[in-house]
Amino acid sequence: MRIEEHPVLEFKRGKKVYFTYDGEKLEGYEGETIAAALHAAGVKVLSHSDRNRPRGFYCAIGNCSSCFMEVNGVSNVKVCIEPLREDMDVKTQKGKGKIV
Amino acid sequence: MVKTAEVVIIGGGISGCAIAYNLAKKGVKDVVLIEKGYLASGATGSCGAGIRQQWGTEMNCKIAKMSCDFFETANEELQYDGDIEFKQGGYLLLASTEKEHEQFKKNVQLQNSLGIHSRMLNLEQAKEIVPHLNTEGLVSTAFYEKDGHLNPFHATEAYGRAAERLGAKIYKYTEVTDIVVENGKVKKVKTDKGDIETKIVVNAAGGHSQIIANMAGVDIPVYSERHQILVTEPLEPLLGPMLMSFSLNIYCQQVPHGGFIMGRGDDTEPRDLRVTSSWQFLDEMVKTATGILPPLKKARLLRQWAGLYNMTPDRQPIYGPVDDVEGFYLAVGFSGHGFMFGPATGLLIAESILGEEPTINIDRLNLRRFESGDLILEPSVV
Amino acid sequence: MKNVELLVIGGGPAGLCAAISAAEAGVDVLLAERDEWLGGQLVKQTHMFFGSEKQQASVRGVDIGKILVKKVEDYKNIEVMENATVLGLYEDGVVTLQQDGNYVKVHPKSVVITTGASEKTLVFPNNDLPGVYGAGAVQTLMNVYGVKPGNKVLMVGAGNIGLIVSYQLMQAGVEVEAIVDASPNIGGYLVHASKIRRMGIPILTRHTVKEAIGKEALEAAVIWELDDKWQPIPGSEKKLDVDVMCISVGLTPLSELLWQIGCRMEFVGELGGFVPIRNDKLQTSLDGIFVAGDVAGVEEASSAMVEGSLAGLSASSYLGYKIDVEKELERDYLNQLSDLRSGPVGEKIRQGLAKALISQEVTNPGQGS
C-alpha cells in the first residue's frame, strides 16, 4: 500500500524499524506515525469501541480522537500523530482506555 | 410571546424546570418559564451533579431523600424518552480526623433515624468498595449505596419537556430586564422579547438570583462564588461511588461515560459572576485527586470549567414567599446543593405557591430567618 | 514560569507568518507547535497555490512551508517549541503547555492564536467504519507518508479540497470512482473540476451518501440522488464498490482556546462555525489576544498567511514597537486580503466576515467589494 512512484513527490523514508502489532512483527519507517505504518501494512481497524464497533482514524492530524490504540501499555494514544519507534508494542484497543 | 401568565418562573435550571413541572402537574394553566440561555446553561449544567443523602441536619436529609427517591423513577415519572443516567454507586465520605469521624457517626445516626440507611465503614471495608483508594491518613469512612450521580442536562431537559407537555411555556434565550412591583404586589415581568403580566414570580435564577431579587426591590443575603471542576478522558469503570472528603476539600466521581469529574470549594474564589477557569485550581486539584486515587496519575485531563454557587450565610437555600412583596417567591441560595435538591424544590415551591399542605415544612428556610437570626448550620459541605 | 513578549500558538501558515512579521518588528517571539515539525497542513499541499506573487502563487504549498520555516529559523528572536501542545489560556495571562510529557507555564504579554481548523464529518449509517476518512487525512497519508489510503475511493464533496484531493489520489495511483456533492453546483474552482473531468472521474451533483456498508472496514457505499428540495429520491440508489470514502465537507475552526479565555464568539456559518469577534487588525474582544488563519474563519492558506502577517504586525504595535512602515504594511496586507476575497469566489467569505467584524471599526476595503 506504499506509493513507490509519484509524479511530484519523492518520499525520503527514514530508517526501517520493527514493531509489534497485536503480537505480530511489522515494519515501518522512522519519521512516520504508527497509523501510517499500520495502514501501509494493510491495518485499518485500530480499536473497537465500547459498543464493539470497529474504529479507524478520521482526521489523521490529532484532532478527532478516533485513532486510539494501546501503545507500550498506555491506552488512548492517538496513533495518527504518535511517531513510530523501534520495538513499540502496539495493540488494538478494546473499549475505553485503562489506567490500571 | 404570551402577554399574561398565572406564574412566571425566572431561570431554566433544575429548580425552575422542576417548579414549572410541578405547577403544571397541579393544574396551573399558564405557567411561563424564562431562561436567558438554554436549559441548564447556568449552575445546573456546570455542577458536579452528585446526589447525596448523607447530610448533617434533619431538614437537609429529608429534602435530599425526597429528591433522591424521585430521581430513582424520574425517567418514568417524567415520561422522558432519554435517560437521566442516574448511577447509584453510593457516596463514600472520607474522615481524616477523629473529629470528622465523630461527626460522621452522629450524621449516620441521624440519617438512619430518617430512613437513610448509611453506615460507617472501616478502611478495609472502604477498600472493598474502592480497591484503589489510598487510605493513608484516613480514619474511617461513611457510605450509603443509594447516593449517586446523574446527568444534569438530561435531568433538566426531562423536567422541561414534561412541563411543556402539561402546557407550560418555556422561553429560552430570553432575558428578564425588570420586575414591576406596584403597591407591594408583583405586576409584570419585563423581558427583552416582551412583557408578561402576572401576579406571581418565582426567582430561580441560581447565580444571578441577587440581580433578579433587586429588580423586585428585594435584597437577599446571597452572593455568587465561582467553583471549578475538571474532567478526565473517558476510561473503563474503576470507581463506583462518589468519593468525598471535607478536610481534603474534594469530591470525585467517575460518570457512566467514563470520565472522572472532580471539584472543590475555595473561599478565595472570585464573587463577580465570573466562570472562567484557573490553572491554580487544576494544579492543586490534580495533587489532591491523585493522592486519594493514585491510578489517576495516568489519566489525561480533558477539560476544566466553572460554575456559580449561590451562597447564603448558613449555606441553606432560601425557599418560599417574600413578606414585603406579595407574589414574589424565592428558590435561591442553594450554596452548592441546588441540583440534588431539585425535585424537592419543585414540589415544595409549587405547594407553597398554591397554599397546599407542605410535604416538608419549609418555613424555617424562609428569607425571614436572616432577620430573626434562626439560622440552620449544616456541618457537612464542600 | 517563563516570561515572553509574544506567544504564537500554532506553526501553520498563519502562525509562521505572524512570528516572522512580529520578529521583523523586533519582538521576541515564542512559537509553540504541537507537532514535531513546523508548517502545519502546508506539508501535505502538493498543489500550486493561487493568488498573487506576494502569497507565493504558483509555488507548491509544501515548498511555501519550507520557505517560511527557513525564515523562522533565521530569526534569532524567534524561539520555537515543537511537540508542545498548549493546554490552557488563563485569566491571569498564564498559558500552560505540555512538551514531551512536561507541564510548562509561560506568561506572554500578547498572544496570537492560529490553531487552524478540524475536518467536519457527515451523518449517515456506518459513517464510523474504518475507511471513511476525512479528505485531509487521506492527503496526509499519501502526500506526507507516501501511503495509499486504499484502492478505490468515493469522494464526498466537490469543493476545492475534494477536487484537489481527487486529483492527488489519481497521481498516487489510486482510483477515484466518483465525486458526489449534495449541491446542484460544483463548489470548487472550474479549472480543478475540468481537470478532474478530463481524467474521466464523474462529478455527480445533487447526490449524497445513503449509507456505508462493511463489517470491519468499508466495503461499499450507497449513494442516491436528491430532488430540488434536497430530499433523496427513493429508487435512485447506486452501490459503489469502494474501500475508501473521503469526506470533504468543509472545516470548522479549532476555537477551544478562544472559548476558554473568554473571547466573544459568534456563530458564522460562512466561516465554518463559531469564530471570534475581531477588529480589522485581528484583535479579539480581549486586549492583546489576536487571531489569524482558519481559527478566525475557514479560508485558504493564502489568506491565512496574510492574516498571520497582519496579526503579527498588530501584536507588535500593541506591544509598543514603533514600526516605520506600519501604516504601509497594514494597508498592503489589507489590500492583499481584499484581492484574495474579491469576486464571486470570495462572496461567502465577505458575507461571513461582515458578521465577525466589530462593525464600527470596519475599515477593511475587502468588505465593500
What does this structure look like?
The complex is a heterotrimer of chains A (100), B (382) and C (369). Chain A is 7% helix and 30% strand. Chain A has 1 helix and 8 strands; from the N terminus they run ββαββββββ. The longest helix of chain A is centred in the middle third of the chain and has 7 residues, at 34-40. Chain B has 2 domains: 7-48 and 153-222 and 314-372, 3-Layer(bba) Sandwich (FAD/NAD(P)-binding domain), CATH 3.50.50; 88-146 and 225-309, D-Amino Acid Oxidase, subunit A, domain 2 (D-Amino Acid Oxidase, Chain A, domain 2, 2-Layer Sandwich). In chain B, helix 1 packs parallel to helix 7 (152-165), helix 1 (14-25) crosses helix 10 and helix 3 (58-72) crosses helix 10 (342-354). Chain B is globular and about 60 Å long. Chain C is globular, with a radius of gyration of 21 Å. In chain C, the strands form 5 sheets. In chain C, strands 1, 2, 3, 4, 5, 6 and 19 form a 7-stranded mixed beta sheet that branches. Chain C has a 5-stranded parallel beta sheet with strand order 8-15-9-10-11. Chain C has a 3-stranded antiparallel beta sheet with strand order 12-13-14, with no helix packed on it. Chain C is 29% helix and 26% strand. Chain C has 2 domains: 2-118 and 251-367, FAD/NAD(P)-binding domain; 121-247, FAD/NAD(P)-binding domain. Chain C contains 9 helices and 19 strands. Classes of the chains: A mainly beta (100), B alpha/beta (382), C alpha/beta (369). Chains in contact: A-B, A-C, B-C. The interface between A and C is large, with 35 and 37 residues.
